[in-house]
Amino acid sequence: MPTSIWQLSYITIRFGGKSAWFGGSTxxxxxxxxxxxxxxxxxxxEYECVGMVRASLGGGHSGGSIIRVNATSYSDLYWGIIIxxxxxxxxxxxxxxxxxxxxxxxxxxxxxxxxALNQLHGNDTILINKAYNVGNFSINATMSSEEPVLFWxxxxxxxxxxxxxxLNAIEAAYQxxxxxxxxQIAQAQGHGMSDSICQHGSVHSTSTVFLQVYNLTAERLIxxxxxxRAAQDADLTAGTSIMHEAYSMEAVGPAASASSFNADRLLMxxxxxxxxxxxxxxx
Length: 283
Known about the structure:
The chain is of the alpha+beta class. It is 19% helix and 27% strand. The chain is globular, with a radius of gyration of 20 Å. The chain starts with 10 loop residues before the first strand and ends in an 8-residue tail after the last strand.
């Protein structure tokens, strides 16, 4: 029978603000707000609806060996895969404002964008204050229902005048930019609890690869393939995106991380979202 830990959601600050204890189902959104109000921040991804346990486990990747855990193999660890609570270091919250910049480019800018992103990452590194930048190929019906656009958003710990401006040189079809408190950055970037990526009632089919640098030829081939699929199945591609995520790793050296993918700072994943069959049923 499936085991649910959904109600194990709580936060306890410990040792005068050096760490915090979290329930196994605690989500990023409430954590950011609670810690910010107390003067702290913690490691987390950009989506408010993702569990904090993901960050505490290095994104789900460890440096150990892979084993199969079931009733007959390593049975003593069978219940160990259910994480009911965990502890993480927390830090003073620092800058009061965070800068965000949202861009939308048409497909003809693809090579310019990914070349600039490789420069932005600076020889496979992303500086701490750059925080993260994420983007995707997706269908934006207000611009075109036949070919994908490039949506990109970056977050910078600090204000506009100090933020990275390398992407500004590429003419965008749409831009949105502002400085907001850290608690508002996810909503501004479309990653909040009320945004489509976080809605219940849908099934996400994903597959992830890890990269150190973007290959412009491969990105063009992927984008063109997405365009062909859009022509074949408009309903499926309407909820599908080819996602790219890049996070600051400057403060995490190889010896300090349990992740065997520590050098692969870029995450790229296919994400298809379809309605769960039960969500289509009436009351």
